[in-house]
């Protein structure tokens, strides 16, 4: 640090420093990149006052996140938190501000966050909290390398659909009293949209927090009609503390925001009678086979039941008559001899005709990820188009 200061010190007299006076409601504080899982990365522009308001909301929300034994924590100089998101993710922005306030110490790495490396970090530093994507969680629970997860006081999965099989296996590896959160949020909404409900039904990604009910709704994406009945799928629209625009991108901003200020998330969800929400899929990721919408996670959940499958992601290839055909991109477990026919037979035995793998199966070494650790669906689709399908 001393060398850094000496190299970059501009020589200004710090005793004469005065903070800049500016309009918190007009000036952008941060430009945060979106995930870019289904297209080009966009920059969500966040104003200063908006961000501070969200910090206050999150402080209330995080009161419900256990941080381990309080007596033990009082004797700790720091409480380690495993921080895996890259610096451009909204989670990193909040982590930089919230960690000191919550007396948490971020455990980070500059090395690639491979499954083996993350396991080593957990075993060595024993973090009490962490957020990770479902693909990382799947890698940990299916790795031959032992990973002791009993250090966690709370664990949160986010960034993609969490398959039931992965959730239940991970839950078994935690201490019985430790909550496993299936969280739902977006960069444009400055993180969480729903409050995780780990005591609710498996598969729920939370319920509506605080007094947000009037600012969240499900809408039929084709008619724009609000959906009020339970178990009916619709697009999540929000009018929460969020971004002002996509920076220098008026076209995408206009597509995302309605005239009366609702933000269209592009995500399909439904809710039950108790108000728990369930993530289905991104609208852009639904596969259109003839007059049917095929939901990739439903097909993936069946394929993951095969003992020889490590991970899978379902995409599609174009078809002249049918529109699209589903393709399963499969990562085998080490030593597995699972065949494409076995996978297709498994899907045929459990799913409807429209959900069959008419595009075939592609075996790959790993699922391509974006810079923020989410599945890179554009790359995955290219693999499905160019690789040998069985």
From TrEMBL:
<dbReference type="InterPro" id="IPR000873">
    <property type="entry name" value="AMP-dep_synth/lig_dom"/>
</dbReference>
<dbReference type="InterPro" id="IPR045851">
    <property type="entry name" value="AMP-bd_C_sf"/>
</dbReference>
<dbReference type="Pfam" id="PF00501">
    <property type="entry name" value="AMP-binding"/>
</dbReference>
<dbReference type="InterPro" id="IPR025110">
    <property type="entry name" value="AMP-bd_C"/>
</dbReference>
<comment type="similarity">
    <text>Belongs to the ATP-dependent AMP-binding enzyme family.</text>
</comment>
<feature type="domain" description="AMP-binding enzyme C-terminal">
    <location>
        <begin position="298"/>
        <end position="374"/>
    </location>
</feature>
<dbReference type="Pfam" id="PF13193">
    <property type="entry name" value="AMP-binding_C"/>
</dbReference>
<dbReference type="GO" id="GO:0016405">
    <property type="term" value="F:CoA-ligase activity"/>
</dbReference>
<dbReference type="GO" id="GO:0005777">
    <property type="term" value="C:peroxisome"/>
</dbReference>
<protein>
    <recommendedName>
        <fullName>Luciferin 4-monooxygenase</fullName>
    </recommendedName>
</protein>
<feature type="domain" description="AMP-dependent synthetase/ligase">
    <location>
        <begin position="34"/>
        <end position="241"/>
    </location>
</feature>
<keyword id="KW-0576">Peroxisome</keyword>
<keyword id="KW-0436">Ligase</keyword>
């Amino acid at each position: 640090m001393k060398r850094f200061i000496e190299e970059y010190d501009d020589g200004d007299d710090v005793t004469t420093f005065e903070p800049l006076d500016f309009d918190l409601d007009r000036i952008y504080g941060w430009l945060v990149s979106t995930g870019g899982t289904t297209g080009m990365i966009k920059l969500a522009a966040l104003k200063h006052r908006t961000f501070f308001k969200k910090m206050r909301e999150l402080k209330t929300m995080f009161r419900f996140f256990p941080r381990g034994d309080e007596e033990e924590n009082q004797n700790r100089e720091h409480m380690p938190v495993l921080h895996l998101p890259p610096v451009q993710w909204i989670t990193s922005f909040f982590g930089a501000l919230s960690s000191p306030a919550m007396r948490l110490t971020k455990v980070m790495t500059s090395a690639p966050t491979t499954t083996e490396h993350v396991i080593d970090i957990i075993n060595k530093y024993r973090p009490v909290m962490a957020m990770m994507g479902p693909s990382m969680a799947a890698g940990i629970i299916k790795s031959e390398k032992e990973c002791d997860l009993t250090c966690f006081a709370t664990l949160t999965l986010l960034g993609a659909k969490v398959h039931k099989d992965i959730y239940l296996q991970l839950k078994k590896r935690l201490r019985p009293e430790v909550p496993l959160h299936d969280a739902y949020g977006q960069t444009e909404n400055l993180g969480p949209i729903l409050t995780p409900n780990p005591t609710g039904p498996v598969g729920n990604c939370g319920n509506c927090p605080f007094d947000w009910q009037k600012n969240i709704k499900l809408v039929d994406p084709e008619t724009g009609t609000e959906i009020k009945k339970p178990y009916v799928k619709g697009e999540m629209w929000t009018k929460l503390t969020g971004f002002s625009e996509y920076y220098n991108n008026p076209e995408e901003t206009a597509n995302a925001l309605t005239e009366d200020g609702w933000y269209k998330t592009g995500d399909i969800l439904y809710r039950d009678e108790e108000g728990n929400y369930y993530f289905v899929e991104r609208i852009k990721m639904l596969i259109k086979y003839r007059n049917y919408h095929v939901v990739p996670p439903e097909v993936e959940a069946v394929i993951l039941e095969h003992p020889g499958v490590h991970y899978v992601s379902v995409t599609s290839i174009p078809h002249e008559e049918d529109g699209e055909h589903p393709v399963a991109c499969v990562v085998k477990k080490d030593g597995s001899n699972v065949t494409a026919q076995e996978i297709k037979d498994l899907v045929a035995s459990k799913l409807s005709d429209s959900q069959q793998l008419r595009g075939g199966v592609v075996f790959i070494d790993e699922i391509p990820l974006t810079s923020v650790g989410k599945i890179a669906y554009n790359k995955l689709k290219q693999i499905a188009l160019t690789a040998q399908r069985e």
